[in-house]
Amino acid sequence: MNILVCVKQVPGSNNVKVDEETGLLVRPKTGNKLNPYDLYALETALSLKERFGGTVKVITMGPPQARSALEECIWMGCDEGILLTDRAFGGADVLATSYTISQGIACCGDWDLILCGKQTTDGDTAQVGAETAEHLGIPHLSNVVSVIDADDFGVTVRANQEKVVVTERIQLPCLLCMESEVNTPRLPSYRRKKAMGADCIRSLGLSDLKDTDPGRYGLKGSPTKVSKVFPPEKSSGRTLVNGTADELADGILELLARRKFIREGSWDS
Amino acid sequence: MFATFTAADLEALRALIPGRVFDGKAINEDYFHDELGTAFGVPDALVRVLSTTEVSQVMKYAFGHNLPVVVRGSGTGLVGGSVAVCGGIMLDTSLMKKVLELDEDNLTVTVQSGMLLMELAEYCNNHGYQYCPDPGEKSATIGGNISTNAGGMRAMKYGVTRDAVRSITVVLPDGDVQTFGSKVVKNSSGYDLKDLIIGSEGTLGIVTEAVLKIIPKPEYSVSILVPFSTMNDAISAVPRIIRAQVTPVATEYMSQDVILFAEEYLGRKFPTHASEAYLLLSFDGNTAEAVRHDMEAIADLCLENGALDVFLIDTEERSASVWSARGAFLEAIKSSTDQMDECDVVVPRSRVAEFIMYTHTVASEVGLRIPSFGHAGDGNLHIYLCRDGLADSEWERRKSLAFSKMYDTARTMGGQVSGEHGIGLDKKSYLRSALGERQIELMRGIKAVFDPKGILNPGKVI
């Protein structure tokens, strides 16, 4: 099975601050890193490669320094990286980003499965994966917690939907957005880093893509207008349940069921 | 011996510390033992103190009425040091959590002794500083750390608790309050009573406040996890690391079986568990280039000395997935058996590999499961004897035999009984064997000067 993983380079700290005056991200001193949510997709891809063979390629769109994110993926075990980088791609919203990635994917040879992370730690839209699949005209599913099985024609996956966990069979080629915390991503290998060849990563610009219409890319291809950027409100995540002992028990059961730690109705005796 | 604790004593204490003196069933059973639970004792009264003045008031009363007193922080000890084996008064310092001063000119933070290590770390981090000692048990109090001279994972580069304490406020057994040391960096002014109190496990005086050395928080840190085919290969690389021109912050060793216990205990996979043994090293500094240079120097050294690979831990997420598991090893081993006892022997760093191999021999000779992990970089090992369902008498027999063999061998290697957990009640006989009667007599002499009535933490250490 040949797998493509879409990744993004994000600020090195998860505590991203936004300048309230300018609306711009305040880049932390810690530099950049691979989007943590993408690590679960990478681990899924590398595990599938170990089970079923094939290759794992990784693709990203970003400035030239995003190459280091692809290098890290190679150190983790990926075979090849594709960097979509061009001044024309700058300032892209989710529509232009997903279109650019879909155009890049079209240059990546044969592939069966595309895996994405759930979202990124900087943009947080969780839309690019699904939109990329729409541009490519392939089926897609979000919140996937595991790929149970795979053959030449399809994959069987388990996905965490709003109220239920569903098991779905999806025909290949398809795109899956992996849920977070579904595995423990492997660590980058220093031995692979030392052995990595310069030809592991290739760059593609606008002129390399099939559609070279600049109006589809970057700021020009982005209908989204940002009126204000602000950090999300911090929540301590605490839920207080009040009442009698029975009410407390019911409240805790309801919470556990809502979070899917237990199945609704499974406590009835 | 000591006076019997009476209802009049209880009333007197309640008058001194209104609302925070408990007795009988009002004392939670957690106060009857420590983390490991090898020693048991019920205090007659539990006093939850808030200040040096309150500790002094209670000590004056106890001294005047010849009542034994045991000090307790979070109760995370492992050798019975904070258990009231003679009854009497238990002083709980866990409400004493105030930060009293942050002195950025002298780089010190002054805290009450009940502050938790994790609270201190967070406070320092929020202000751009680091308190360097990093014992694995983050819910221990700083007072508890001082009482055992706790070491932790950064000892290789930054030293142990004693190296980070500038000054302590101590309530003596008769209630007198003294300050030992000060904010000064150097001190050649007579016997160092501060350093004598540190590590004395609450037998000489009660530490109520501490002035601690802090450093500006290093801007960058990175860790590496290094797999080896065998534990011998892993530990054999350590002396070469020590000889290198780079000092890692931490050099921990861990075996595959302990990693698997941690996975089961935490319900979460470790990033790798395919190899028999691992070294976990960390590096810090103020530029990314310097830290990377140090890391790569040691990574190359490890590869030249038999490492199968070197895995990079360079983000918050990767760091959390590895170091949180490392922090849970003790609890993970504990959950793998019905009862356990521990040995935190410290040996010269050149003998660590030999000693770990010896624990495997002991396990086989005695018939006990003996997993271990620890600080390869400073020679301090955490070795756990697992009961695994043995009957009482057999457990005691095998445990005693295993401890005797290990402590005897450590001594012949130039080691010491405890690297950081202390002696408490459980390791007294091994300390006596290791140090000899003359040194124990010297310690008894010191105890008699500080505590002529012997009321402070009786029965512990010596």
Structural notes for this entry:
- The complex is a heterodimer of chains A (269) and B (462).
- Chain A has two domains: 3-221, 3-Layer(aba) Sandwich (Rossmann fold); 235-269, no CATH class.
- Chain A has six helices and 13 strands.
- Chain A has helices spanning 36-52, 67-76, 94-105, 128-136, 190-195, 245-258; strands at residues 3-6, 9-11, 17-18, 25-26, 32-34, 56-61, 80-84, 113-116, 140-150, 154-160, 165-171, 174-178, 201-204.
- The radius of gyration of chain A is 20 Å and the shape is globular.
- Chain B folds into four domains: 7-94, Uridine Diphospho-n-acetylenolpyruvylglucosamine Reductase, domain 2 (2-Layer Sandwich); 99-216, Uridine Diphospho-n-acetylenolpyruvylglucosamine Reductase, domain 3 (2-Layer Sandwich), CATH 3.30.465.10; 220-331, Alpha-Beta Plaits (2-Layer Sandwich); 337-424, Alpha-Beta Plaits, CATH 3.30.70.
- Chain B is 37% helix and 19% strand.
- Chain B contains 17 helices and 18 strands.
- Chain B has helices spanning 7-16, 52-65, 117-126, 142-148, 155-158, 161-164, 193-197, 231-236, 238-243, 256-266, 288-304, 316-327, 329-334, 352-366, 392-412, 428-435, 437-450; strands at residues 21-22, 45-48, 69-72, 89-92, 99-103, 108-112, 129-130, 165-171, 177-181, 206-213, 215-216, 220-228, 250-255, 277-285, 311-313, 340-343, 372-375, 380-386.
- In chain B, the strands form four sheets. Chain B has a seven-stranded antiparallel β-sheet with strand order 15-12-14-13-17-18-16, with helices on both faces. Chain B has a five-stranded antiparallel β-sheet with strand order 5-6-10-8-9.
- The longest helix of chain B is centred in the last third of the chain and has 21 residues, at 392-412.
- Classes of the chains: A alpha/beta (269), B alpha+beta (462).
